[in-house]
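Researcher: Here's a chain I'd like modeled. Treat it as a single chain, no partners, no ligands.
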Amino acid sequence: MSQNHLSDLRFDALVIHEHIQAGIRDAGFEFCTPIQASTLPIALLGHDVAGQAQTGTGKTAAFLIATYQRLLSSQPAEGEKKQPRAFMLAPTRELAVQIANDAELLGKHTGFKIGLAYGGTDYEKQRRTIEDGIDILIGTPGRIIDYFKQGVFALNQVEVAVLDEADRMFDLGFIKDIRYLLRRLPPPEKRLNMLFSATLSHRVMELAYEHMNEPDLIRIEPDKVTADKVRQAIFFPSNEDKMPLLIGLIREMGEGRIMVFVNMKREAERVQDFLQANGIEASAISGDVPQKKRLRMLMQFQAGELPVLIGTDVASRGLHIPDVQYIINYDLPQDAEDYVHRIGRTARAGASGDAISFGCETYAISLPDIEDFIGHKLPVAKYDVSLLPKIVRPKPRPRRKPEQRRGSGKRPPRRRN
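Model: Modeled as a single isolated chain. C-alpha cells:
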C-alpha cells in the first residue's frame, strides 16, 4: 500500500490512553491520515468536529479513537443496568457492521462492550445483547428507534454522539429518525459530537449546528472531488453493445476485485444473470437481498472468492472493501455526486484503481452534470465492435409466486434498515 496518503503526525505523539494505543498498534497504524491528523487533536480535547473527507481516508478510526478516549477519561453513571455511553448512527447495515468490526479491533484492550442494531436479521439476538448492557451502540436508525421505543435501552447517559455518512442519511430519507434520536440525547454541550460526511452541504451543516456544540469544520482537499489515483475513462456503447462490452472488459481484467454499478435493482439482477451465463462468477447486492446473504457476499468479495460484485447506489457508500481494482459504471448515475461515491470504492487509502463508465443511449444525458461536478472531462475510450465477444443469453428467471412478492400474501414487507 502506498504511504504518501499519510500525514507526518504519529499516533504515539497524541495524548491517547495506552489501552487505545495498543489497539492502534494491533491495527498496524503508525501515522495519521490527513482527516485523522486534522480532527483527532480537536476531538481529543473534547471539542465537536464536523469533518468532510473523501471515502476511504480513515474517518472511522478518527471518531472511534476519540470516542474511546472520552469514555476512558470519564466515569460511567451508576445505575441498575449499563446504558450506552456512545451512540453511533450509520445509513446502511453494512457500514454499521464495518464500524463495529473496526471498533472491536481498536478497542480490544479497553474492555468496552459494543452492541449492534440493524434491520434484516438477528432481531432477538441484538435485543438481548443491548438489554444485557453495553457501552457503545452502533446501528441504523430504524432498528434503534424500534428498540428505544420498547425501552430496551436509554439515551440519557450518552457522552459521545457520532453521525457517519450524514449526507447519505438525507438521501435515504432518515433525517426525521435522526432528529428524533438526537433530541433524546443529553444536551449538545454535555457530550462530544462528531459528524462525518463526503459533502458538508447546507442541509448537513444545518443539522450540525442544530445538534452540535459549535463544531470545528474540517475539510480535507475540498477542491479534489475525485481521488487523484483513480484512472477514469468512458466508453460510448450502444445499448445493444453494453453487455458484450462489459463481459469483454471483465475477461480482459482477469484477476482483481471488480464492482459493477447499475441504477436499478432489476438491472443488477439482469447483469448478474448475464455474467453467470457467460462463465463469470458474480453476485448482485441490493436492499432486497436477505441480510445474512448480503454479509456473506461481502465477505466472499473481500476474501477474493467472489470476483465481481454488482450493486446500485445503496451499495456505493459506506462499504470499506480494500483492494478494489476496477469500478465499472455500467449505467452512468443520474446524480453527479453518486459518480464520486461509486468510483471512491477504488483507490482507497493511497492505492490506485480504474473507473470505467458506459455513456450509453439511455444515461449519456447525465455526463455533462458529472463532468461539471468533478471539474474535468472524462477521457474517451474506444472499442472495436468486431472484437466484442459473442455472448450467451441467460435463461429467463422463473416468475415469483404472489406470496413471494414483497408486501403480498403472508410475508410482511421487511424493514428498510
